[in-house]
Amino acid sequence: MKALLILGVFSFGYGFLQIVNFDPLPWTGNETWVVGTFGNPNFFSSFVALVNISLLTNIFRDAIETKIRILASVLLLYGAYLLIQIGSTQGFIVFLAGSSFVVLMRIRTSIKYKWALFPSIAITFIGTLFGILDILQKAPWESRLYKLSVSARGDYWRAATQIFGDNPWTGVGIDAFRNWYPIYREPVSLNHGEASTLADAAHNVFLDFAVSGGVALFSSYVLMVAFTLVAAIRIIKRLESFNPPVIGLIGVWIGYQVQSLISINQLGLATWGWVFSGLIIGFEILHRPLQNAELSERLPKIHTGRNSSKAKNPQKLSSWVSPLVGAILGFCLVWPLMSAHINYNTAMKNADPLLLLNAANQFPKDALRMSMAAESVSLMGFPRDGYDLAKQASIFDPNFSVPWKIMATFPRVSEEEKKQIQEKLNELDPLFNEAEKRRLALK
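User: That's the sequence. What structure does it adopt?
Assistant: Structure tokens below.
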């Protein structure tokens, strides 16, 4: 929880730099976005919400210095201001979910206000119901929370459900949703902005696992979440007083789970969800009621005397080995992808077609990167090279529709090739022609 707060304060400060247009890093994208280091306002707002949940538990802490409580309150107010500036509904939903739990737990563990527990639960339930109705535009008033992205998520979820239904045992492969969504998307998705374009995730972690790995991967993830939930309930039942770190831990986990229902498995957020799941399960196991004999066996041995410092040193060394090995392996795995993206961005910045072609074919290959490079190379004055690169991308990932869409834009193509491209597009994206008509009409 301390780590979350430390990184949260850093993110708060960096978010402020973006608000005042003083960001030292040259991000590419919408200049009005406040994204922190997450690259997208939705993800950043969710992380800010998780930090705010943690801050709220510290404000409710009983034995705390006044200055610490004031600092936490100021940071929480700034976090709320940051959520407003980010402008993503996702962050507010995550914060309300986690903070509602924290407030209910504060009431439950308070002798003075314990009478208000059931009325508070009722208010929370009714408020949640009205919020869902508002988001879905089913409330008797004009919706305040609805955005076009809500309808887009419905399109993703329906397509993912159908993909899973047709491939229940094995799924369609890791990160293969982007290939299959155009085949399964409904015509109504063309009216929902982002849902009519490339989508690489179902925007629901449970559905993403189901699509990626079928029943085995989906059920294992559901069991892990259920196991964590059972552990959290057991911890709550044993609590006799307000324990800020533990309640904050569960509150943040609840916030992440809500986020996972409406968003993608974004690494900067998913890390917290998995780590906090492990912490909740581990905490529950370590704090189960034990008999004296079992307790003495489970407690760590305390070394005293001359050999105590010698006993501590191997323990300190071993505690660094796993993170160090993990960091080295992680860097080795990630570096080739980072290098490819760095080279691609450098080539785009310098408008260097030769460097762009090299970066597009760099390991690990990605048909999307190859397709974007093909389009850029063509615009730089080398249409034949661009077409050849798009064709390579279609061979590398034959079930991905984007390379075929890029090839369809090239005018100097034989009639036979045009016919082949159109047949492939009809197979991989049946709504492509209708989408192109609407796009051209808007121009």
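Residues 308-350 form the longest helix (43 residues).
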